[in-house]
Design goal:
20% helix; alpha+beta; two-stranded antiparallel ribbon; 1 helix; 7 strands; 5-stranded antiparallel sheet; 99 residues; elongated
Length: 99
């Protein structure tokens, strides 16, 4: 999943806001849940932990997400956010989702 870097998500200083990055990570992990479960099954974010590594700058931010474990009641996932075109990771996130 990828979003363009625009003025609407930039904060003062020309870097992407943490809120936009956290929302991207959360959304990408929800879609990873859909892929893992082979269905668009409602999941609710229980925990979301985001570590910001460096300012996100460039043209866009790409999210790579995967499910690390899925049980009957909970799904665990992680995501890496990467600035493009530099290819540098800007944030790491983990989340727990209720099924």
């Amino acid at each position: 999943m990828e979003i363009p870097i625009t003025e609407e998500i930039n904060r003062i200083g020309g870097i992407v806001s943490g809120q936009a990055l956290a929302a991207l990570a959360d959304t990408a992990m929800v879609f990873a849940c859909f892929g893992h479960l082979d269905a668009v099954e409602p999941v609710g974010t229980v925990t979301l932990d985001t570590q910001f590594l460096r300012p996100a700058t460039g043209d866009s931010v790409r999210a790579e997400a995967e499910v690390t474990r899925a049980g009957k009641a909970m799904v665990f996932a992680r995501a890496t956010l990467i600035a493009e075109p530099s290819g540098k990771p800007v944030a790491l996130a983990t989340a727990t989702f209720a099924r």
